[in-house]
């Protein structure tokens, strides 16, 4: 890449910020990262990646000369016109997005001198208009504003950065909008160039739709269980319809993660606050909550009362290849099982440290076989690769009972049964 690439600032070095920073550095930009967490900045300056994301540490090392980390805004302001904002917008107690970190960034901007804020954080539709008003009222109307929502998935964040399905740039038709378009140009992705409000809405609507797709297939799975159909076959048949598509039709014990849970609720409330009752999203949320709990009734059906039963949880992270525990189905499931009096022993190859901080009372195993040893039932919660390769005859020997619940429909049911175990998937025949 040429040395003439636009330098950028990135405010917030969490998941989205770090991947954006490293991705643009790899495309040739000088990147000036800012974070209020001095410990995190020190680790990044030392070349350590504070999150688990495959390939990120190598790419950071490869581009270390172009990546600068600081707790001060000054280097970013001095060296870059475009300031990407990637700070957290977690849900508040009301379920609305907490925009305090975004507003802290807006307030920290000095008098206007030709910079632009490029919003990567997921914010409610209307946030850009609000920030524009704040800038105008505070003598900073020369600031530009661009909404550039991020669609990357944890675990495949780098390839999602390099090969996005689309790049969405919502702007005010000025230099900053064009500069962001130019930055993404080498990726060759379809471009949706639009207004700020529509760009904000695209992000919320996309996540809400994907969550709806998952809750839909989970309900189909539940009906399949009643009627003797197999949801994997049903999803395959549905997904070949080009209008539906095969992705996000994997039934299981519910979606998790920071984005879906937060964004579905934020969109529901955003609609509600604007006077529209978004009925469908209520069902999407409720189905997902119930889905996490349905496993408990499957256990009861096979084992009877759960008090004193030993249950092994394989996987705790909200999906494989991440240590992220936010919104993980395992949180609800483990708490429900413990409330029933079961003894829960859990193993996750990467997320244990994160899990311990949220569930200190859980019994943690240091490997899958340690979790399985003496279990009455084994539940696959997160489909980590190593669980798909388990030797089921060994599992059968180590268990006290015979029940295997495949919470992600990811195991080979025939192999499990061939080992003399009972296989229960989600919506499987
Ligand atoms: C999601 C969006 O996909 C991404 O575009 C956005 O930027 C952030 O939110 P992420 O949360 O990283 O990404 O994970 P994703 O791979 O989308 O999975 C979310 C959850 O849905 C996981 O718990 C996963 O197990 C579950 N899921 C996914 C299903 O239960 N079934 C499916 O078919 C797909």
Can you tell me about this structure?
This protein is of the alpha/beta class and 429 residues long. It folds into 2 domains: 2-193, NAD(P)-binding Rossmann-like Domain (Rossmann fold), CATH 3.40.50; 209-424, Rossmann fold. It has helices spanning 15-26, 38-45, 56-62, 74-79, 100-108, 127-137, 157-162, 175-184, 196-227, 231-239, 258-273, 279-303, 329-339, 352-358, 368-372, 385-388, 392-398, 413-418; strands at 8-11, 31-34, 67-70, 82-85, 116-119, 144-147, 167-171, 191-195, 310-314, 343-347, 363-364, 377-380, 403-406, 422-424. The protein has a 6-stranded parallel beta sheet with strand order 3-2-1-4-5-6, sandwiched between helices. The protein has a 6-stranded parallel beta sheet with strand order 11-10-9-12-13-14. Helix 1 links the parallel strand 1 (8-11) and strand 2. It is globular, with a radius of gyration of 23 Å. The protein starts with 7 loop residues before the first strand and ends in a 5-residue tail after the last strand. The model has no long low-confidence stretch (mean pLDDT 96). The structure holds uridine-5'-diphosphate-xylopyranose.
What order do the helices and strands come in, and which of them pair?
Elements: E1 8-11, H1 15-26, E2 31-34, H2 38-45, H3 56-62, E3 67-70, H4 74-79, E4 82-85, H5 100-108, E5 116-119, H6 127-137, E6 144-147, H7 157-162, E7 167-171, H8 175-184, E8 191-195, H9 196-227, H10 231-239, H11 258-273, H12 279-303, E9 310-314, H13 329-339, E10 343-347, H14 352-358, E11 363-364, H15 368-372, E12 377-380, H16 385-388, H17 392-398, E13 403-406, H18 413-418, E14 422-424
The structure holds uridine-5'-diphosphate-xylopyranose.
Uridine-5'-diphosphate-xylopyranose (UDX) binds at residues 150-154, 207, 210, 214, 248-250, 252, 255-257, 259-260, 318-319.
């Amino acid at each position: 890449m040429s040395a003439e690439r636009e330098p950028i600032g990135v405010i917030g070095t969490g998941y989205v910020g770090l991947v954006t920073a490293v991705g643009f550095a790899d495309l040739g930009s000088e990147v000036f990262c800012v974070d209020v967490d001095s410990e995190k900045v020190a680790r990044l300056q030392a070349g350590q990646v504070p999150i688990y994301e495959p390939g990120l540490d190598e790419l950071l090392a490869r581009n270390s000369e172009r990546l600068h980390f600081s707790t001060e805004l000054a280097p970013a302001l001095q060296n870059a016109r475009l300031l990407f904002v990637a700070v957290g917008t977690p849900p508040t107690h009301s379920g609305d997005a907490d925009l305090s970190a975004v507003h802290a960034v807006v307030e920290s901007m000095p008098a206007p001198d030709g910079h632009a804020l490029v919003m990567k954080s997921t914010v409610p539709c209307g946030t850009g208009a609000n920030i524009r008003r704040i800038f105008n009222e505070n003598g900073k109307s020369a600031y530009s504003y661009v909404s550039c929502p991020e669609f990357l998935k944890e675990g495949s964040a780098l390839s999602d950065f390099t090969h996005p399905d689309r790049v969405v740039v919502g702007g005010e038709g000025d230099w900053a909008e064009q500069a962001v378009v130019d930055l993404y140009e080498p990726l060759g992705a379809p471009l949706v160039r639009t207004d700020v409000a529509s760009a904000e809405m695209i992000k919320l609507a996309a996540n809400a739709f994907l969550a709806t797709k998952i809750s839909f297939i989970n309900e189909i799975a539940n009906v399949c269980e009643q009627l003797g159909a197999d949801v994997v076959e049903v999803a395959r048949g549905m997904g070949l319809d080009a209008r539906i598509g095969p992705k996000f039709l994997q039934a299981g014990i519910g979606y998790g993660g920071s984005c879906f849970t937060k964004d579905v609720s934020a969109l529901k409330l955003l609609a509600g606050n604007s006077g529209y009752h978004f009925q469908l999203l209520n069902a999407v949320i409720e189905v997902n909550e119930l889905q996490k709990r349905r496993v408990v009734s499957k256990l009861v059906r096979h084992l009877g009362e759960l008090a004193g039963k030993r249950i092994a949880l394989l996987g705790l992270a909200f999906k494989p290849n991440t240590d992220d525990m936010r919104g993980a189905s395992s949180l609800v499931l483990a708490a429900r099982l413990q409330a029933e009096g079961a003894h829960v022993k859990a193993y996750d190859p990467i997320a244990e440290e994160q899990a311990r901080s949220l569930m200190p009372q859980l019994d943690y195993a240091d490997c899958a076989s340690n979790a399985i040893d003496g279990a009455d039932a084994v539940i696959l919660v997160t489909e980590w690769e190593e669980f798909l390769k388990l030797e089921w005859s060994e599992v059968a020997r180590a268990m006290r009972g015979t029940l295997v619940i495949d919470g992600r429909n990811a195991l080979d049911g025939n192999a499990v049964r061939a080992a003399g175990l009972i296989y229960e998937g989600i919506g499987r025949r």
